[in-house]
Amino acid sequence: MQNDRVAGSFRDPSGYVFWSKGRLFRAIDQGCLETLSGLKQKGILDRLIADGLVVPSWFVEDEGLLRTLRAEHPGFAAYIEHEVIESISYPYEWTVSMLAHAAEVTLDLQTRLMKAGYALKDATAFNIQFSKGKPVFIDLPSIERPKRLDLWYALGQFQRMFLYPLLLSRHYGWDLASYFLTRLDGRGLQEMGHILSPGQRWHPRLWMDVSLPLLLEGKSSKKAPTGQQILGKSVQNTAPQEILLNRLRSKIRKLAAGYHRQGTWATYETTCTYSATATNTKKELVKRYFEKTKPRSVLDVGCNTGEYTFLAAECGARVFAVDGDHDAVDILYRRMKGKGLAVTPLVVNICQPTPAIGYLNQERASFLDRGRSECVIALALLHHLLVSGNLSLAACRDMFARVTTDSLILEFVPTDDPMFLQLTKYRTTEFSGVTLESCLEVFSSCFDVASVEPLPDLKRHLLFLRKKA
Amino acid sequence: MVGVGMTIAYIDPGTGSFLLQSAIAGAIGVFFYFRSAIKRLVDRLLGRNRTPPSDDPNSSNG
Lengths: 469, 62
What we know:
The complex is a heterodimer of chains A (about 475) and B (about 60). With about 475 residues, chain A is α/β, with parallel strands linked by helices. Chain A is about 40% helix and about 15% strand. Chain B has a domain at about 25-45.
């Protein structure tokens, strides 16, 4: 039974998120209650939820439950229950399209709030989660009632968390993990100045978001009004902020649309060595297994553009689909559009999964702690783990045993397979010990072998394994 | 060099963007102010009545 505070929820003094008996609640103080109940009474909160911008949330009104929550977490004005999002992910695991969509949701929400006289005081990408392939905002206490409606206080944070990483990945070859993993709050203006050469810094596309702000920051004098002085004035004209939000929206869209894909695996499905018979047999075997065992959660490791991810999701599982190749995952994400499937595609190299990070190394959980699933599928992956990942069969076994709670579908790729040979073309390492028999023997210490099915036209086999209790 | 580093360390990372945004918002605000002032002046010179307050509750600022 959990009565715990969520580790990442501690910065905002107005409350925090906690688990109670498998349900997710948020304790809020009087100020936050006034803001949110105002939004609720005007019907705005419910419309934002209905339009999919905000995670479904409701005030706890049941007296019995309220008594329990007050006893567990005393001293708060009210409690909100949130719908649970099962697959938690972070911006350093997202693709460019995912970050751009998260940015658009943030801007859409801010626009709607601004028109009603409210605003987001934070614009961090960590306030967005993906639910059924769509970004939703999760941090209700970030909503406030500002005095000025012509300015957006969170602009700087929006630039650091969304605009700069998209700019750097579109034009300067950065990847999002490099951008975020050593700077969870994104990279500031001064750092952007250091990253870009003087020539790059004055490119017209950077004028509004980097060059001019940098110039002003350098020139800001002691006589300049403070943020508090500027924000203390009451201004009701929303036109300047509307212009700003529209500019940001069109810039984000342009950056995402202009991104050039360069991944090796994005075209894999059209270049791989499978015959139609082998593909169909493989799909049929995996599908039959899903229908028989009905796993509630699936982790597709080395998902590529998601053939088997969609198979698992269509059988009713919530799926984590991970691959080390950004562009393949980005294609998968875009293929999900409109399908409403419970799939979370992420850029994760399973040989070096995302670490736990942040305050006390607990603020954001490691991928292995979030990604554990009833069934793990690893198709056409083993040779990459053995050759590119330099893992032994035993190391592969231990890793899969760590991430599955029940079963594993593993495609065995023999050393004389054309793809295996291609990978080892310039390797001197000896892989002759890797045989179907040795693989089954190594895995048998942690798994029971349910069945071994040969794939036609290939020497590959599908192994259906169940984790030992 | 230490002085420069110190100065940067004490600048809130959003300062530059915030100042630029305030300056632009100020300019747009001035534009809106003059636009409505000129409109009022023209209306008065032409002897037009100002639009009476609307009865539509949606148009109020609440």
